[in-house]
Q: What sequence folds into this?
């Protein structure tokens, strides 16, 4: 079984809709992250969390919110989706020592 | 600020050796990672350097020079399956709560041709 899972893997939605992307991990890591990846722009950090009570904004948090429901679960919400949020979204986890990040398989989101 | 530079694309021949360079200017330095990412898939961890020198792991090696703000990933005996993007990521300044800021480069797309 995969250590980091994301649901859904693909999603098409319309402008203005609220959607949630979910991430679960079985690695036992405290730290979890949400990134988006766009062609030519690389990976950009949206939000990160070091434990259940800790939420931090990343480089591009506007238009997004997150919830850390448990150590193993970290969800990303788009309150009112817009077309420029069309991207590949990755969840990642890391331990607290070297902080090597382990990525989920990604969610491909298309906002029409 | 953080700035990481990598070539956008490279092409190499099956069986050959290729070197992918990464230069960085970051506020603080606490380690450098290399990740491999096949098209449409998740990045996967390849190597980590925190001290100067060469780290070898099978066909892949990674080198770091902290004084020059420079790293490279060396891939030997190239195989078709090595066609992927290679991401350099620098663990920079301390950002509080026991963590350090991690910044990714935009990646180098490597195409291996027969």
A:
């Amino acid at each position: 079984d995969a250590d980091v899972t994301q649901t859904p893997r693909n999603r098409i939605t319309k402008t203005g809709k609220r959607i949630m992307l979910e991430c679960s991990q079985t690695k036992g890591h405290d730290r979890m992250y949400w990134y988006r990846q766009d062609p030519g722009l690389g990976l950009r950090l949206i939000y990160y969390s070091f434990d259940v009570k800790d939420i931090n904004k990343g480089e591009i948090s506007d238009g997004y919110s997150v919830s850390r429901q448990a150590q193993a679960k970290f969800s990303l919400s788009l309150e009112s989706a817009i077309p420029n949020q069309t991207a590949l979204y990755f969840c990642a986890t890391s331990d607290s020592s070297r902080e090597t990040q382990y990525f989920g398989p990604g969610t491909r989101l298309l906002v029409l | 600020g953080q700035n990481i530079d990598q070539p956008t694309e490279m092409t190499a021949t099956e069986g050959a050796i290729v070197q992918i360079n990464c230069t960085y200017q970051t506020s603080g330095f606490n380690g450098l990672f290399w990740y491999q990412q096949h098209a449409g898939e998740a990045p996967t961890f390849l190597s980590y350097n925190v001290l100067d020198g060469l780290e070898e792991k099978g066909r892949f090696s990674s080198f770091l020079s902290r004084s020059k703000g420079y790293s490279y990933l060396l891939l030997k005996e190239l195989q078709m399956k090595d066609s992927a993007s290679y991401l350099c990521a620098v663990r920079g300044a301390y950002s509080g709560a026991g963590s350090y800021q991690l910044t990714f480069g935009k990646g180098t797309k490597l195409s291996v041709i027969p």
